Amino acid sequence: MIIYNESSSKFISHVLEQRIESVLLDRVQEKMNHSVSPSEIRSWTNSLPQMAKILRDADLKDGTHVLLEYKLPSTEKRIDFLITGEDKTGKQNAVIVELKQWQKSQLAEGDGIVKTYLGGRNRETVHPSYQSLSYKRFLENFNESLYEGTSINLSSCAYLHNYIPNRESEPLLDERYQSYIEQSPVYFQFDDLLLRKRINDAVSEGKGDEIARRIEEGRIRPSKKLVEAVNSLFEGNEEFILLDEQKVAYEKVLSIYNGLDLETDQKHTILIKGGPGTGKSVIGLNLMNFLLGEEATIEYITPNQSFREILRKKLIGRSGFVEIRSLFKGSAAYVDTPNNYYDVLVCDEAHRLKNQGHMKPKIEGENQATQIIRSSRLSVFFIDDEQVISNKDIGRFELLKEEAEKQNANVHVVELDSQFRCAGSGNYLEWLDNLLYDKKQDIPLDGDFDFQVVDSPQELYDKIVKEKGGRLLAGYAWDWNKNPINGKLPKDVVVEEHDFAMPWNDPNRIDWAIHPEGSEQIGCIHTVQGLEMEYVGVIIGNDLTYNPETQSLEVKRENFKDKGARPAKPKGKYAVDPLDQLVRNTYKTLMTRGMKGCYVYLVDKDLKNTYMGGNNKDKSH
């Protein structure tokens, strides 16, 4: 979606008449029905006159076109400024200009990462050359009018019009960023002549209206090059082979997709139910790979940001194709998407869907499930009601079914039972369900899954982290102070009896599960849901205890510290506390992240000695 598409002469007039802000505000309201933040208006006021001055002095022929606020499809990212036209050889060009009000910056760790003052404090962000180049590559891989080999040549740069560089040791020009700068130059305050020449060389002859129209109307779908890159990840890779009922579920989705009637608006929704380790993600990723090859417009949705980032990094790392990350979206990305814009949307971990996204406008009568179903002809949801771990999680089976029926979608249900995680041990899951949900059945724990109860959190760390290379996890029974103290994460997870303390996972590191620093931090449920590791160690806090008198588990509301996930306390002496189910679900989810084994330390002694008494630290299963 492009908010503003006008000739360069009209753009200059809007700026000189001091109307550009009001014009953009009207267009945003008209096209997006959104309000605009004061900071965004300030950026228009401060940056667009600078570009108007560049264009006014660039000696451009009439017909050069300016596009402002190009919203990249199903993302929150917008291209600030894009200009189209022909050069003196008759070649069609489009130039992206990323506008920044920065005044200084610092070097930072990470590929293409810098530090600058944003939002009231110094923050890590991407280098302007990387940002503008990433937008260019996105368009080249998703907008058909700009695919490699088409007649429009797309280039990019960044303009920091308030920034006076240190010519001797400017952080933004450091050698570590040179590969991005070479592809997408960065211009500073006194580089206006250089930027003017670049624009003149590209679009001086005008005739940009048709180019702008093609870009604005270009069909959004992955390029052949990107599809081939994704396909190469799956060929011969045993990690993605479909087994038994996984294959059945996969073929069910394809049969429904092949039967879609593109002449009508008839929708289909497929609800695939399966517990931990039943291969839901493997099915979903195979579907995305195949349907991309069929030229379907498809995206893969994961509400959990950490899970999404791990999937992206694993696939990008194998392919070297950064644009793969644009195929994976969060569940809040479909607020404004038109009806049936996508052929297929696949939503993994659908039980984590919310009523609305963080910082998103609330639309009456809609939630994230509504928006996903509305946005696609075929919506596929992978769900497990027993992994609902917060009062904000709405994606239960019945709600998804109800939302689909409201939109007159044909609903199909598929169930997965076979266990492909936890050493393929269905026995372990049956035993765990019996233990956590007080089923009081006589189920011995046997099989190949390595389960142990240890005597101290330090022993848990030694066995899981040092010996097995795994990760420690914990229930939300400790407060989480997310602000560093003297540059270090506070050690919030404390077990005084054993003089043990470790920090929660770094909230700014969403790749915690695969980053080396993660071994010295404890993962929370919101970080690890959807992920799997060979071995995990779980600290069961005093939010889950054992009552010898009733001979059953008890959830202690006062010891559960996740205020955002905690439902209101029910009224009435005999009312069932919904937090009880959420805490049990949390520990089931944590204790099923391991593919080969799970060791636990229990803070509550009655729970350790009585309820898990048959599973001492010397016995593996």
UniProtKB/TrEMBL annotation:
Q: Enumerate the spans annotated as AAA+ ATPase domain.
A: 266-403
Q: Which SMART domains match?
A: AAA
According to UniProt, the name of this protein is ATP/GTP-binding protein
Give the organism, scientific name: Planococcus rifietoensis
> What phylogenetic lineage does the species belong to?
Bacteria, Bacillati, Bacillota, Bacilli, Bacillales
